[in-house]
Design brief:
mainly alpha; Recoverin, domain 1; 2 domains; two-stranded antiparallel ribbon; two-stranded antiparallel sheet
């Protein structure tokens, strides 16, 4: 038991260096991972699909997909996994880690950029580095139409108008017949410039409130 615990702590220490989570946080996240996976070594999209708190979320599909998107796992790859292990799960969760009092301005900016990239990837579903009108329209339609307050056609019109506004802002000298290819990550950064991310990007559906997680190395 003691040798097993030592090995586990050593493995978790390796993950603290990669993610910035403390040993205690990693242990808590591992318990939640085991609950989701049924004590298996990997979890699937179906495992996350069964989370009750996600049932009525209008972008449930995008949230679940984000966990299996290799771009969000700090891998130099694109594409999607069918299942992920705990380390991959933890790497995705690290996007929601808030800064601490010791976090430098440079580190805060890097963390903000990672959060923005994560959000961008959720919209850029075909991994081509651009959020097209079709991708943007799909997300907006789901957000609006599933709320029950607006029909699909009205949601489509709102999405189209929003994309045109983005196009006019990012490419102000577009001719009437010019085709706007879509939102690049640089455009996305400009659109969300000034938006406070720390209190907005957190996860509660996993029973882990990341807005209250204190980060850094464990002192115990």
């Amino acid at each position: 038991m003691g040798a097993s615990q030592t090995r586990s702590d050593h493995e978790h220490q390796h993950l603290t260096d990669k993610t910035g989570f403390s040993l205690e946080q990693i242990k808590n996240l591992h318990k939640r991972f085991q609950q989701l996976s049924g004590n298996e070594e990997t979890i699937s999209k179906e495992d996350l699909d069964r989370i009750p708190a996600l049932a009525n979320n209008p972008i449930k599909k995008q949230i679940i997909g984000a966990f299996f998107d290799k771009r969000n796992q700090h891998q130099d790859e694109v594409g999607s996994c069918d299942e992920i292990g705990f380390e991959q799960f933890l790497m995705v969760m690290s996007h929601f880690r808030p800064p601490t009092l010791k976090t430098t301005d440079e580190e805060k900016e890097a963390m903000r950029k990672e959060k923005l990239r994560f959000l961008f990837n959720m919209h850029d579903t075909d991994n081509d580095g651009t959020i097209t009108l079709e991708e943007y329209r799909k997300v907006v339609e789901e957000l609006l139409s599933k709320s029950g307050a607006i029909g699909q056609e009205a949601a489509k019109a709102i999405a189209d108008a929003a994309m045109l506004e983005v196009a006019s802002t990012n490419v102000p000298h577009m001719a009437p017949d010019d085709f706007y290819e879509g939102i690049t990550f640089e455009h996305f950064e400009q659109i969300l410039k000034g938006l406070e991310m720390e209190s907005r990007m957190h996860i509660r559906f996993l029973d882990v409130d990341t807005t209250t997680m204190r980060c850094g190395k464990s002192t115990s």
